[in-house]
Amino acid sequence: MTQLNNEQKQLLFDYCLGLTAENETAEAQALIASNEQAAEIHSKLNANLAPLQNIEPESCPDELVNRTILRLNNAARSSQRNLEQLLAKEQAKGLFD
Amino acid sequence: MKLTLDKQSDADLLTRYSAGDEAAFREIVSRYKNSLYMFLKRFISQQDLVEDVFQETFLQLFTSRDSFDPSRPLRPWLFTIAANKAKDALRKQQRTAAMPIGTIVDAEEMSFDEVLDTLSSTSTRPYEELEKDETTIRVREIIANMPEILREILILAYFNKFSYKQMAQILSIPIGTVKSRLHTAVGRFAKDWKAAVGSKESK
Question: B37 to chain A, minimum CA–CA distance in Å?
Answer without folding.
Answer: 6
